[in-house]
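Field: sequence (string)
Field: structure_tokens (string)

Example rows 1 and 2, in order.
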Amino acid sequence: MQMTDAEKGLLDIGYKMATESRFMLLFDTILEGCIHYTNADGGTLYMVDEEEGRLVHLLDVNRSLDVGNETRGAASQADMRKAEDNETNIFTHTYHRKCIINIADIYDINEFDTRFIREFDARYQYRTQSVLMSPINVAGKKVLGVMMLYNCMDDEGNVIPFTRDCEHTVASLTAQMANTVTNMNLIQDMTELLASFVRCLTTAIDAKTPYNANHTRHVEKYCMMVVDYINAQYTRGVADVYISQNDKEQLSMAAQLHDIGKIITPREILNKSTRLGPAYDGLRSRLEKIRLLKKIDMLEGRLDKAVWQMDDLRIENFLENLERLNICDRLTDNDIARIDEIGGQIYEPEEGEPIPYLTEEEKEFLHIKAGTLTEEERNIVHEHVVYTDKILADINFTEKYDKVRRIAANHHEYLDGSGYPNGLKAEQLDLLTRIITVCDIFDSLTADDRPYKGPMPVNRAFAILNDMVKEGKLDESVVRFLEECKPYEKKGEL
């Protein structure tokens, strides 16, 4: 059986309601559809603003007048904020009664305040006559809005009252609209719930250590700057790639979650701001004790004075340099030689166990050439991406966020396969992952809250990033885009 044009049109409206994700386009479709299938001359749509506790005017359509949305309901919107107008205002009356109101001639009734209609008619030399008011409500639940249709027309263009068929048509379409809006609101609420959950996790990550307090936020902001810049360049015809809004949202979420695995990393490693950590005070006390014992040995004749003087001077010089050796960014070869010299010494008391100047653990700590972590501690920190992957694997991301886990878990992978934890290569790393990798490194280099180093000048940071490009580790275009964004000019705003 062949469908009529009207049936096809209704199916088309149903399809749009099922697939449209933009509220205003959905509202426009419904209003236009109701006007079309009731043969009304125009319509007005109000939706509920729950936060404000009022109806808010959204759309106006009039087929015979060339008018925009200056709105025949503007005056009524202000009135609706007053509780005493709930029964006299036709829109709020429809909202509270939750039923269709069909009026043959709006000028023949006195129970409603129709000033805004009369003002509209006077302004445009128009005559509003028949009116159909319909609540947009979910069955048995709250009303989401109110639609007013006016001036139903017969085949000759004469204004007639809205028929019962018109009432049924509008009731059906607005009911479908209410269900669609409810579902869209539910999706929006779930999305916001996930976003708020991510924000909570981000707070937990950054609270794990004072030295990571701003990193997550900075990386996310840098990623968004790069995405916006790439899209702007694409619009200008400079870049050949465009990042969709959904991919942008996925990258934002991945950036906020990329260090979630650090929740598992021991706090004492994350917060280790010096090479020796808590062992510093013990080492200094031991060396001071050895100096004192050796002086006693010299005074009591068990140690040659010249030998004592030489050894005492060695310990004194080492103690004078110990704080610097403990906190400096990078050790020199002379520093390593000084550590090895003192580390080879052992005090042999007349009685009791020998006392090494440095323990094996202290030697390992003081031999850290750059930074504050030993190789074992670095490996523990590197495991945070493994835990990031495991934690995110337990989150049931929807299809909308199907890339988040992969992007977050791979942010330490390099194009040449030298990254960790899986040694992935260029063909396995998409653009979003390449962006977060570059932004993560940039913030790590320029951060001013790291325990083991001061902030690096931006030009030096980009020199390092470009060296990594030459080594085949980073995407050249992403580094260039970040540099052209001038993130350092906006760092204070982050």
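Row 2 begins here:
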Amino acid sequence: MAHEIAYVRKEMQAQEPAPQKSGSIALWLRTNLFANPKDAFLSILAIIFLVWAVPPMVEWLFINAAWTGTDRTACATIAQGGVQPDGWSGACWAFIGAKFDQIMFGRYPDAEMWRPILIAILFTALLIPLLMPKAPHKGWNALALFIILPIFAFFILYGGVFGLPVVDTSDWGGLMVTLILSYFAITVSLPLGIILALGRRSKMPVMRTLSIMFIEVVRGVPLITILFMASVMLPLFLPEGMTINKFLRAIVGVSLFISAYMAETIRGGLQAMPKGQFEGAASLGLGYWQTMRLVILPQAIKLVIPAIVNQFISIFKDTSLVSIIGMFDLLGIIKFNFTDSSWASPVTPITGLIFAGFVFFIFCFAMSRYSSFMERHLDTGHRS
């Protein structure tokens, strides 16, 4: 006799309470800050610290700050020869306002300031579409950003053509130098790092040995040494009467330095690739370079995106070391202006350093956020 195995509900299920709104503030606080006693204790400590630290910081940075002025009197107390009351303490944003052009462009002539501004606009207009995954014509966009724009920017910024007066690179400075050095270092280091990583894994002894020697030698010395080598010793090896612009030497030195580290980052991604990927490509009849270009490198680079962006952020900050060889980047030009006696006050240096730190943070945070966005966009193989 067959048994009935089907289940038929005889009565209605009891009504359950309505779920809490997932976006409610109470639920977010309970989930993220007060999920258990330990989280609640640490959250309370953090809140107490913020209540203690943030109001004085806001007061010093904004409420008591001196926003306008033409010299140090705006940021000095009466006892120090200024206009502020005795005991006053606040940020000297008037110093940043007065030196803003120098902080952005160094000693670039005021009459020619439109030239770096034009390059900045073109760079932004080409960079934004390249960063958008769904933007069309990526190939042409990359060609314009990485090939055409640098050549055009050099002739516009340096001059000597199109009737433009020459502005020597010794007059360049500020954020412009920081961005140019970072741009070239990032642009050169990624492809060169890929070549070095492939060379280190090559089966050809000469290629492997040369790649290993370059990587280990460059990684074995600090960036300061590389910059000194590029700035001081490189001209000694050139033919008599031949010289290389100091700014170009710095670009080459920084680019080679970060390339060695980038090579090891890329090599880590290559080593993480399973052997089956190579075998699958070989079964399709793909050659070595086709396998690398179409199968291996896209996956390997995706795996090490956080490490690559970490290298980009590191080199963006390390460009401040070029001040050692007499070049004034963002931090260098700010520190140089501390020597201006017309702005000498107790709060001027810390205000300038806070502003420099804020600018560095904005760029580094933007790179970090875009890295997270690209990880989520490319993480198609692990989505449920």
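free_text_note (row 2): The mean pLDDT is 89.
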